[in-house]
Amino acid sequence: METVYYPDDDILYIRFSDKTIVREVSRDWHVNIAYAADGDIVEMTILDAKTIGLYPVRTEDKRAA
Hints:
Elements: E1 2-6, E2 11-15, E3 23-26, E4 31-35, E5 41-47
Antiparallel strand pairs: 1-2, 2-5, 3-4, 4-5
C-alpha cells in the first residue's frame, strides 16, 4: 500500500494494489475510486483531504487481547 499527500493541492492519494484499473467512479466531489476487473479497489484519490478532515490520517497499532 502506498499513501501520498500533496500539501500544495490538498490531495491524498492511496494505492492499494498494482492491479490494472478498468473503471473509475467519482463518489462525490471529493472522492474518486478506481477499481480492478475483479471489483477490488485499486486506488482512491481524495480532494481537499485536509479541508474535509481526512488528513492527517490517524493510525493505531493494537494487539488482540
